[in-house]
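# nightly structure sweep
# worker-07 picked up a monomer target from the shared queue
# config: single-sequence mode, recycle default, output format = structure tokens
# input follows
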Amino acid sequence: MKRAIMRSVQNVIFLLFTFVSGLFYVCFYLVSIVLGLALSFTVVGIPLLTNVLRSTQIFVQHERIQTKIYTDISIEPLETRQRAKGNQWMQAKAELMNVRNWISVYWLMQKFVIGCICLVVGLLIYIIPVCFAFVPLLYPFVELHFLGSVVDSEMKALQIMGLGFILMIVCSKLGNGLVQFAGGYTCLMFKAIRG
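# output follows
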């Protein structure tokens, strides 16, 4: 029982972290790339784009580690890229022309959609059963409605609580599936980057 509860807590953390990291990637890359392109006519724009594209390797490796910790899905790490030889402008050209960087940006930004799905579905499957379990404590103080009828007796409250416990078991399995879905997305991302 304790192990199942810890696994559910770990799943909730992973699902929330998936949303937060997806939101971060969308904001970071959207702002950085647009700013870099807008400033590309100055001395600042191209180096900004270069450094932003170099960050993809760090974030992709971070996703691999996060997936391994929370889902036990092992993914082979990408080989580390060496910086291009030459001056700063040759390095910038190499980073901007590297297709793997742009594929990584695309997949990392798409993680926002996966994160939104994980947030909404995760909250529904983990919060609703817990709320049902607390109905016997709440019904004397709050007017509760369940499927069109008022919860006004202890018997109805206990039935809803029982339904909450059943849903906890079922939703635990759904939560595990959702976590595997999010981990599978990371596997697909690595396959696409390796090309």
